[in-house]
Specification:
The complex is a heterotrimer of chains A (495), B (171) and C (123).
Chain A lengths: L4 H6 L1 H16 L9 H19 L9 E3 L4 E3 L1 H27 L6 H18 L3 H19 L6 H32 L4 H11 L4 H18 L7 H8 L2 H26 L4 H24 L4 H25 L3 H30 L1 E3 L2 E2 L9 H4 L1 H15 L5 H15 L3 H27 L11 E2 L3 H19 L2 H9 L6
Chain B lengths: L1 H21 L3 H21 L3 H26 L11 H21 L11 H5 L4 H9 L4 H22 L9
Chain C lengths: L10 H24 L6 H4 L18 H25 L1 H28 L7
Helix pairs in contact in C: 3-4
The chains are: A mainly alpha (495), B mainly alpha (171), C mainly alpha (123).
Chain lengths: 495, 171, 123
């Protein structure tokens, strides 16, 4: 029997995260309610350790190591996503500190669930086997189902949890069914085995087609792509805001990472087929996400539809990768997806951080109307929200523009100029609903009869989060090159 | 002989599954589910997947069904006919799936040579459970440990969502 | 495919099931044939230690049962994982023991949590 010393070293970041989560859950019942924040610092410490570990490997970015009989692989692609996920998780934890206090949710378990969800995401990102990826997805989703329902005094939060759970379980079933069909075709669940079987088998096997569709549907749920988006608005609205931010950013990034790996590394041989399928999904997602967002009056719901629309933009990159003529065309498509999601993380986290701490009495000010006159009351808060909204709309010189620019460029390179034009039109439409928030903040006076006016409640942790988010949005908007080259270097090899 | 067993199990599974959704008393539904679980286990045995049959009996018939019954009693459902209005929709969807299944069966001539299954050789000589143990604790060690994390999340999640006096309003 | 006959080891189980069904059916049938049938109201009520009925048997279960059932399911699945390990314990050796200890340790974290939070207490 072999020993697993070297393998354990490969998954050291995962071990740290899981170890911290377990330690946290053991300590949780022993900490008095007033000291629960210590647990948050413990998890931040673990994250810092992980950032150091994975970040230290940046000089050997594309070194590909696999472990546990090739079920786990750490390559440049995995390292890129892991770094992103650590950052997002860290900011989410910081954001949660004041948010949980304001909501009177002193639950140490919350941080444990964040870490366990993170470990699930890390497994998804590094999984080189359909089973591993599936289990990672389940670990992430289960933690998120619980987190969505943590605000137990609110029926909406519980409803969000239940809805998310039922639909999520259904989508896991689809995913698993697709995986089992692929196993039937390939005789193995490793992505390499699947690719080899497809290569030798030809493409017109109906089983393969069904498996591909089932996998696309299963991942579609996790990515919130139309027509698998139904859960998104209700869950995003009902869940505690910090959890919503985590779902919108981290879970979407991890799902995209696993999704790209499965479809490029495993089903790459079918790219002519799936790129058509995703072209269709991408179009309906852009249309529905952007149009329905216009009529929303609740800002969390609006951002839910906006996150659906953003998944549509990111899909353009995958379609371009599938259609990519040569090797380079495909690589730039994939890199554009990675870049897009990384930049999307900053602006969305920032926007949700503002919303979470935008309090009216004891409650969250969730209506867009609550932002009326914010520019007069708190000019800095209004300006930050302005930056995030402008970036989400994709207007230069912000990060959102850079993300969209590279995605559209990839589409044009792949000969899909018309798709880029359509997406551009919808980006213009999306500017309408983002700018409406800005208009309400700057042009509108609060309704004098409304009583208490909502305020952004500042705190040191929130300041750090907002500073990071706004710095990311503006710096990467002005100097995108380091991130672009990082994404290009760590992209998956496209066959 | 094997065919005979297959058709017996398949027929009972199909009938019991229909009864699960068609019966009006939720307890009867749960009991026909139990019948279905046992016949699925029988099907597994006839496919020589003995470990899976044991899992089916221990986990599904033993634990999951208890959970179902508890939920039924928790909600104190006596009669529930709210869902019976969905028959037409269910019919349409079911018919579509049936047509699809038939089409796929007809397509079978063209496609799918049996998969390059490497499982049969290892099973020979060793029992089902032994082969599974070997694979699970060497090749698939990593997913196995991830599974334990999933169970951990499920356990703590169930406690935190179901128990009233955790966390909440103490500031 | 190897040999395709139905696993013969399961024949006794089949036999037992058959006997159980026949036994149940025969005793019910015999009773139905032999007994006189003169029902009245009190006879048709369920027997509850001789005292008259005072409520429906189907009462609403408290939530506590659910948590216990949930924990039972989880540990049941743990048992399922332990069986193949136990069967191959000899050949898996020390490494297998460590693997299983890690698995159980992770679940013990959950048990510790449940215990400390009072999920196992009845009140």
């Amino acid at each position: 029997m072999t020993s697993y010393g070297a393998d354990l070293l490969v998954i050291l970041p995962e071990l740290i995260v899981v170890g911290a989560a377990c330690l946290l859950l053991v300590l949780e019942p022993l900490t008095p309610p007033s000291r629960k924040e210590l647990l948050a610092w413990l998890s931040l410490g673990a994250l810092a350790l992980c950032i150091g570990l994975t970040g230290g490997q940046i000089s050997v970015l594309n070194l590909r190591v696999s472990a546990f009989s090739d079920l786990v692989v750490v390559d440049g692609y995995a390292r890129f996503w892991k770094l992103l996920l650590y950052g997002v998780t860290g900011l989410t934890i910081l954001m949660s500190l004041p948010y949980l206090k304001a909501e009177r949710l002193q639950l140490g378990e919350y941080y444990g669930f964040i870490l366990l969800a993170l470990s699930g995401m890390m497994v998804m990102v590094s999984g080189a086997d359909l089973l591993t990826i599936y289990l990672g997805t389940e670990l992430m989703s289960l933690s998120l189902y619980v987190m969505a329902g943590l605000k137990r005094s609110s029926p909406r939060s519980l409803e969000a949890s239940a809805k998310y759970f039922v639909l999520g379980a259904f989508s896991s079933g689809l995913l698993l069914y697709g995986i089992s069909l692929l196993y039937g075709v390939a005789g193995g669940t490793k992505l390499g085995a699947v690719a080899a079987a497809i290569g030798s088998r030809g493409f017109d096997d109906p089983l393969l087609l069904i498996a591909t569709i089932l996998l696309a549907a299963g991942f579609g749920f996790k990515l919130a792509v139309v027509p698998f988006h139904m859960w998104t608005p209700d869950v995003y609205q009902g869940a505690p805001t910090s959890v919503t931010a985590f779902m919108a950013v981290a879970s979407k990034a991890a799902s995209f990472a696993a999704f790209l790996r499965v479809f490029v590394e495993g089903l790459g041989g079918l790219k002519a087929d799936w790129s058509n399928l995703f072209l269709l999904l991408c179009l309906v997602t852009l249309i529905l996400g952007n149009l329905v967002a216009i009529v929303q009056t609740n800002i969390k719901r609006m951002l839910a539809y906006s996150s659906i629309a953003h998944a549509g933009y990111a899909l353009i990159g995958l379609v371009a990768a599938g259609r990519g003529m040569g090797e380079s065309g495909g690589a730039s498509g994939l890199a554009s997806v990675m870049l897009y999601l990384a930049l999307y993380a900053f602006m969305t986290l920032g926007a949700f951080a503002v919303i979470g701490m935008f309090r009216k009495g004891g409650l969250e000010g969730e209506d867009i109307e609550d932002f009326a006159g914010l520019a007069k009351r708190q000019p800095l808060a209004a300006f930050l929200m302005l930056v995030f909204m402008v970036s989400l709309a994709g207007i230069p010189p912000t990060a959102g523009f850079i993300g969209k620019f590279y995605v559209f460029m990839a589409a044009v390179e792949a000969g899909l100029a018309w798709l880029a034009v359509v997406a551009l039109i919808f980006a213009a439409i999306s500017a309408y609903y983002y700018m409406r928030v800005v208009m309400v903040m700057y042009m509108r006076e609060p309704d004098p009869s409304a009583g208490e006016v909502p305020q952004l409640v500042a705190s040191p942790a929130l300041t750090v989060v907002l500073a990071c988010a706004v710095a990311g949005v503006i710096l990467f908007g002005l100097f995108p090159n380091p991130l672009v080259s990082l994404a290009l270097q760590s992209v998956l090899p496209l066959k | 002989m094997e065919q005979l067993f297959f058709f017996y199990f398949a027929a009972v599974i199909a009938v019991a599954s229909v009864l699960v959704v068609a019966l009006r008393n939720p307890i009867y539904s749960a009991l026909s589910l139990l019948i279905m679980f046992f016949h699925v286990a029988g099907l597994y045995v006839s496919l020589r997947a003995e470990f899976l049959a044991a899992v089916q009996v221990i986990v599904y018939a033993g634990a999951i069904l208890v959970l179902y019954l508890f939920v039924v009693m928790l909600l104190n459902l006596k009669q529930d006919d709210r869902y019976h209005r969905q028959w037409p929709v269910a019919g349409v969807v079911g018919l579509t799936l049936a047509v699809e299944a038939v089409m796929l069966t007809l397509l079978k001539g063209r496609a799918i040579p049996p998969a390059p299954a490497n499982t049969n050789e290892t099973v020979e000589g060793l029992g089902n459970t032994e082969a599974l143990g070997d694979a699970l604790y060497s090749t698939y060690l990593f997913p196995f440990e991830v599974a334990s994390l999933i169970l951990l999340v499920a356990m703590i999640g169930a406690i935190i969502l179901a128990k009233k006096d955790i966390g909440g309003s103490e500031a | 495919m190897g040999n395709t006959e139905v696993p013969v080891n399961y024949l006794p189980i089949l036999l037992f099931i058959g006997i159980a069904i026949v036994f149940g059916a025969v005793s019910l049938l015999a009773g139905w044939l032999v007994r006189p049938s003169r029902p009245y109201r009190a006879k048709l009520n369920p027997y509850e230690s001789g005292s008259p009925l005072f409520s429906d048997a189907r009462v609403q279960f408290p939530m506590r049962y659910y948590i216990i059932a949930m924990l039972f399911v989880i540990f049941d699945i743990e048992v399922i994982f332990i069986i193949p390990w136990a069967v191959r314990f000899q050949s898996l050796g020390l490494l297998g023991l460590v693997e299983m200890l890690v698995f159980i340790a992770i679940l013990l974290v959950g048990l510790w949590y449940a215990w400390k939070k009072g999920a196992l207490e009845w009140d």
